[in-house]
Amino acid sequence: MSETTEAPDVLAWTCPLPLRDQPRVVMGHGGGGALSAELVRDVFAPAYGGPALSAMNDSATIELGGARLAFSTDSFVVRPLFFPGGSIGHLAVNGTVNDLAMSGARPAYLSCGFILEEGVETEVVRRVAEALGEAARAAGVEVATGDTKVVEAGHGDGVFINTSGIGLVPPGVDLRPQRVVPGDVVIVSGPIGVHGVAVMSVREGLEFGVEIESDCAALAGLVEAMLAVTEDLHVLRDPTRGGLAAALNEIAAAAGTGVVVQERAVPVPAPVANACAVLGLDPMYVANEGKLVAFVPREHADAVLAAMRAHPLGREAAVIGEAVADHPGMVVARTGLGGTRVVDLPLGEQLPRIC
Fold this sequence. Notes:
The chain is of the alpha+beta class and 355 residues long. It has nine helices and 14 strands. Helix 6 (220-229) packs across helix 9 (298-309).
């Protein structure tokens, strides 16, 4: 080092993994992992309070006028706005519909709020709105109300969308992680990691030899087919931000059980596996937008699996593991070589802005 070289400014260095004691919000707080959970637990939950929020499920189940309703809201900030297999408009519908479906509800109505950046092309907004309407009709829900705001150029990213939804929960349906017990069979509805890799490939201009399309889809019909076999499903979850790993960890923590996953049983498409290998990612942590994971009593597992495979969105459903009494709150994977690894809750996010 020459004598004229200045000493490095260590205070300006940044860490690729945000620290938990960050005094400011970092991207990882929106990733669906440990940082997201801490933000909700330490900031939002104490501020809001209330029993409906305390369950911390994908949607709240509430009693209103003698009916059991599922109520959910979600915001979508994906970039790019259009990607193979979908768009921000499709995500805005399917993401909220799926949150309702994970409570066993039959989705009925959505609200839709658009936040537009000054200067975005009207034709782009039209395409997004048309995609949203198309997805709503396909999901069998109606956009009943909405709102539009415009922010100054440079204070947004083209189009952001918030959707809220309500649906009816049929009598006898009680889906929540606290019902999980050791011996429950864990079923995933199909190949994982597709959506996250599809969005990333377009955003970063990556090519993997074959186009990977998002699995974005509304899962209410699949859930109805499962509930037609038995109402005694214990919990459902759509593994979006944080992927399958985050969903399993959230369920294990809330249930107070352990989860064992057979790594080779987890369906990962070859293009996704190859892309993750190149990029150093674990498919278990990559986002999905058209898959669910179910914890099902063992006596119903075969019949539920058969019903899932008979549905177009569950043709490749697979049993991947079980709930166990050992290591409560922890998820472990049995590897193909006979070893065991801990599948922890991600700290932040591997793939920013995939929904």
